[in-house]
Amino acid sequence: MKVLDIHDLANFDFLDPPNPETMMRALETLNFLNAINDEGELTSEGRWMAEFPLDVEMSKILISSPKYVCSEEILTLVSVLSSHSPFVRTKEHAEAADKAKAQFIHQDGDFLTLLAVFNEYMREGQNIEWCNQNFLNPKSLKSAAEIREQLSQKMARLGLPLISQKNNLSENLRKCLACGFFMHVVHQERAGVYITLKEKQQVGIHPSSTVGKPEWAIYHEFVITPNKYIRTVSPINAEWLLEIAPHYFELSRFPESQGKKMLERLQKMMRKREKEDEEEEYD
């Protein structure tokens, strides 16, 4: 609607009007992602994000990826996340499926594990028999490959380069993911439980995750069953959050938690460092 220059969303004649609170949350999300400015106007970055048929967070990640020299890998990840999970696990073959999945597991979590799966699928020539042997869904992976091709054409038209750099790939990749998912952050409190930082909801890491027990993590999906889970998870450095989205981490608006206290300490350290660097430069 913003791209179509429809600005008065509150008074728009919707056939089925959204809840006003939902509308405000959506606008707030767009603002945090720099898709719209404080006056509610579409930014140049927002226009680029609107070019992609993706959730806004994933569009943000995709257009940010050249900056982190990992657009090849991010393009793959966004495509895999836009399809169904590639993993197949039935009760009868649970142990064999877990063993097959173990060969793809990356120490830095689920996003890099998915990347490893897709890359191996392409190296195997998109072989269906190989997928079946490794308890992978060939339809999901084929769909991801088709989505990737479509998105790569869109990136080429927009002049976004497809580049990759193997040095520091994991760190660069996770920093880029944090550009879109900085609102999807959890911290492990002293009691061993995870809480979402802004809403202070207690969650568990989904049993399908390969991530272990990181102190800080970003996630792709929030899943509500009888329990609350986060799914597709990777560890991050808390300092990255303050570097990437300082406008979001206005900590006075966050509920009290151990994670908030840690970020407050980090903010003070970073400000002190910046001041020392400025004084050194002045001298």
TrEMBL record:
Alphabetized InterPro entries for the sequence: DEAD-box_helicase_OB_fold (IPR011709), HA2_WH (IPR048333), Helicase-assoc_dom (IPR007502), P-loop_NTPase (IPR027417)
Xref: Pfam families: HA2_C, OB_NTP_bind, WHD_HA2
Keyword field contains NADP: no
GO BP, one annotated term: RNA splicing
GO molecular function: ATP binding; hydrolase activity; RNA binding; RNA helicase activity
PANTHER family on file: ATP-DEPENDENT RNA HELICASE, ATP-DEPENDENT RNA HELICASE DHX15 HOMOLOG
Organism this protein belongs to: Blepharisma stoltei
Catalytic activity of the protein: ATP + H2O = ADP + phosphate + H(+)
Keywords, sorted A to Z: ATP-binding, Helicase, Hydrolase, mRNA processing, mRNA splicing, Nucleotide-binding
Domain of life: Eukaryota
EC number: 3.6.4.13
Listed Gene3D superfamilies: 1.20.120.1080
Residue ranges constituting the Helicase-associated domain according to the UniProt record: 25-115
Protein name: RNA helicase
